[in-house]
Structure formats: C-alpha cells, structure tokens
Amino acid sequence: MPAPPAYKPLSTVDPEDGVQDRDQATVNRTLRARRTKKLLFYFVAVAATMYAMFSGFKFLVRTGPKRFASGPGCHGAQRNLSSLPSHYALPSGDKIPAVALGVWQASPGEVGAAVTTALKAGYRHIDGAWIYRNEEEVGAAVKEAGVPRDELWITSKLWNAFHAPEDIEEALDDTLGKLDTEYLDLYLLHWPVAFKKGTTTVDKELTANPYPTWQKLEEMVEKGKIRNIGLSNFNIPRIQNLTANPLKIQPAVNQVELNFWNPQPDLLKWSKENGLLLEAYSPLGSSKQVKETLSQPAVKAIAEKLGITPAQAIISWHIQRGTVVLPKSVTPSRVEENFKVVALPDDLFDQLEEAATSHPPQRTLNPSKGWGLDFDVFNDYPQV
After folding, report:
1. Is the pLDDT of residue 78 over 50?
2. Residue 138 in contact with residue 112, Cβ under 8 Å?
3. Which residues are known to be catalytic?
C-alpha cells in the first residue's frame, strides 16, 4: 500500500498579520502584544457599556412615570399598561365600556362636535337621555363618524312622564328615531318617580310600584329594541322593592351620582355584593365643584406623582372602585384627556378613597323640591 501523501505543515500565523517570514521569537512577541491590546480593548468596551446601561437605568427610574404617563400621544400605551378594566360584563353577557362620554347639559351646536371628538379619541360609549333634548344631534354625529354600530354602546333613558306601560314603546321609538339606530344597548329608568303623562304630577301608584313599567321594558328587550335595561338614581330600598318581583331580566346597572364629594361607599358596597354595576355621573362633581375637586391636595399629589392630570386621577379612581364613569365635556382637549386612565397604586388609591369618604356627603343634584315632591327622592320611600 503506498504511503499517505506528505502534507506540508500549515503556518500557525495568520497570513494577514504580515509576519509569516519573521523568525519565531519575533512572531511570538508580536502575537503576545496584539493579544494584550485586544484584551485591554475588550475590558474598556465592557466597562463603557456597563456605565451606559447604568446611566440609562437611573434616567428611567428618575423620569419613568412622567415620561410614559404624560403627553398627548401616549393614550394607547397608558391603557395597554393599565390594569384597569376597559369593559364590564353585564348579566346579559354584553360588555359595557368603562368610560363613556356623558352628554347631559351639552348644548345644541356643541354636543355633536363633542361626540365627534370622543369617537376619534377612542370612546365607544355615549350616555344620553330623552330629556337632554340633544339626541338628534348625537345621532347625526355618530352616523357621520362612521364607527360600525356593533362597536358602539349607546345608552338612553326613559323620562318620568312615560312610565305608564302604554306610553313606553312610543317614547322609546322616538329616541331610536332621533338617534337613528335600530336598538339601544342600554335603556334606563331615569328616575324612580313616575309622572302622569304630559304633566309633572306624580303618579303615586307607578312611583311606589315600578314593576308594570319594568315588565314593559322587558318586552322591549324581547322585541330587540333594547339589549339591556337598568335603573338610575335608585336607592337600595327602591331597588329591593323592584327586584322583589318575579323579574325576567335583572337590572344591568344603576346610574347614580358618584364623585369626591358624594362617593356613596355604602351603596357601592351593597351593589357589588348584589351583582349590580354602578355608573358614576357627575364624576368630577357639579360644574361649580369641578375646580375645587381638582385642587384637592390628595388629588393633586397623586396626579403629580403619576405624571397625570387631576381629572385623570379622579376618573381612574372611579374605574378602580369598580364603576363605569361618565365624564362630560364639550371642550376637545378635555374630552381627550378624560379618556386616558391609569391604575393607581394601592396606597394612592386608598389615600384618595379615604379623603373622599372622610367628609359629610354633598349631593350635586336633588330635584325633589323642584318637582314639588312631598318626599326626598333619594331617601324616603313613598307608600300608596
């Protein structure tokens, strides 16, 4: 067998080093020097990288909350990073958006623009009522926005003068026509007080026993004109009075005044225990109270610490309490601001809750005297 071919030993020196022809001692010295330089370069590079990373980390710790919680372009990030719910599930299985644009006291010529701004900002929940007398403009703005109907949540309310079962469908159809929609996602009994049709005279029987009214609303759900039905301004005895009847459909929500001045912790606790979702109207207080609400030390401190506005702190607090919140404004910047919510750290939430519940409650709205009632609609329960 022939001997294997003799292979020429390959040089152990990189040809690109340009030292192939040097003597071995020179080669070894050159290689050691270059290895030393490479090691020094490596250690310098690692040290520089670690310093840069440490400096960047300190910057983020120092500026992080404000950097990522402020500014007009961070809304999506806020909601994605927030642990606050964007929707609540109702008994029907429908999911109601946690933040709505309220259109109470929004004047003609202003409400449409507010709805347009809200829908562009990401709102998908509009809370209105027949008595607000702006449903037609709201409906036109919704239609012009072009948001698919199944992505919207539209709420309206049955006025006191239409509680008689024979009047309900006509009133509902009027609302549907003005809003230019085939159905409502939610229809509420606006007040636990029934008037005789065309008057402000109290219908004592329907006020004391709203079950016939509720039965007609259940029928409207069965017809497909309403998806969910609920209450507004009902206290606990009035809710219990209604739900003591054999209801086909349980109330989905109870929309009530909730704010820093009137937080109603007992009603909130009872509602959670009984599976009834609360919705907060006047969440920043009355128009006369808003400035005072936003200047409260506890509110300002939380806002400053989290890099958000005082209004955002309050609205976030409402959602964190477990309620739908209905801020209202016709000012575009405020409409956009009110939609940006963040989860409050537990200690800050507790501080705000304590501040809100440590003073005597101050109710924003009570129409009892204005309606000539001989009882307080929020406290007393009239018997037939």
Report:
1. no
2. yes
3. 132
pLDDT at 18: 37
* pTM, rounded to two decimals: 0.78
Give the whole-angstrom CA distance, residue 242 versus residue 236. Answer: 10
How high does pLDDT run on average in the chain?
84
Dihedral (Cα; 21, 23, 26, 29), 10-degree rounding: 100
Distances (CA, A) of 133 to 129, 158, 170, 197, 246: 8, 12, 16, 18, 34
HSE toward the beta carbon, residue 113, CA cutoff 13 A: 11
Q: Kindly report the three-state secondary structure assignment for every residue of the chain.
A: CCCCCCCCCCCCCCHHHCCCCCCHHHHHHHHHHHHHHHHHHHHHHHHHHHHHHHHHHHHHHHHHHHHHHCCHHHHHHHHHHCCCCCEEECCCCCEEECECEECCCCCCCCHHHHHHHHHHHCCCEEECCHHHCCHHHHHHHHHHHCCCHHHCEEEEEECHHHCCHHHHHHHHHHHHHHHCCCCECEEEECCCCCECCCCCCECHHHHHCCHHHHHHHHHHHHHCCECCEEEECCCHHHHHHHHCCCCCCCCCEEEEECCCCCCCHHHHHHHHHCCCEEEEECCCCCCCCHHHHHCCHHHHHHHHHHCCCHHHHHHHHHHHCCCEECCCCCCHHHHHHHCCCCCCCHHHHHHHHHHHHCCCCCCCCCCCCCCCCCCCCCCCCCCC
Tally of CB atoms within 10 A around 310? 20
